[in-house]
Automatic annotation (TrEMBL):
Family: Belongs to the short-chain dehydrogenases/reductases (SDR) family.
Record keywords: NADP, Oxidoreductase
GO MF, one annotated term: carbonyl reductase (NADPH) activity
Domain of life: Eukaryota
EC id: 1.1.1.184
Protein name: carbonyl reductase (NADPH)
Lineage: Eukaryota, Metazoa, Spiralia, Gnathifera, Rotifera
Enzyme class of the recorded protein, top EC level: oxidoreductase
Amino acid sequence: MQKFKKVAVVTGSNKGIGFAIVKSLARKFNGIVYLTARNESLGIKAVKNLQDEGISVNFHQLDIEDSHSIERFSHYLKEKYDGLDVLINNAAIAYHHRENDFTPEIDQVINTIRVNFSSTLNLCNALFPLLRPNARVVNVSSRAGFLSNIKDQNLIDRILSKKFSIEESIQLMDEYIQLAKSGQHKNLTSNCYAMSKIGLNLLTEAQQILFDNDERKNIVVNSCTPGYCATDMTSYTGPLTPEEGAKTPVFLALLPENYDSFKGKFWADEQC
């Protein structure tokens, strides 16, 4: 095991906003930054591109949809560092910007909820035991996750009536998938990406409640929007650059150790 060093991990970071987050974080973080990607060759290439700019980061293969990949990475971090200080959950998918995509709608719903919510939660479950005191977790979300994007007032009232637990957030995502099987899901939101981010924002609140009662002090989780960025996920239609999109996630990852303000909240433009 290496002598104690702070360690940061960014998921889905060989391109786009994730790559920009790694690049910015590596310049500011007093520790080791891991760029991760499903495709090992693409991840190594991304690391090489940063090295060519004089930026040093590490690489590890990570597919958040693959339980074995998650387990290998968790074991690696445990054995090598015995801890983790920053986790930025950036990996996600979106169908609603894709032109000429003939993926059946039910598959779009299942895949989007699985990657953006369930797989992110699975990774958190594996890596959260490694978080050290004062660790920071950032769930990269979207303004699509605002409750104003819900069409059903009963669902809005249900969400506002209490703090959702992790289990209740999972149940809501399952309910949405079941509605999609009968074509009723659009009565709730305009698209499944929005519902996945609603789920992620609810999950963030629930995770912070658990951390508030954790013996490890001052672990903070927040969600945020990077803004509408020009990446392949948006078919390069966004007005912001990935570098601009990286600002808020990196800001939240570097909240100071004595931070004692907004936790479990949604942030935009470095503000809650």
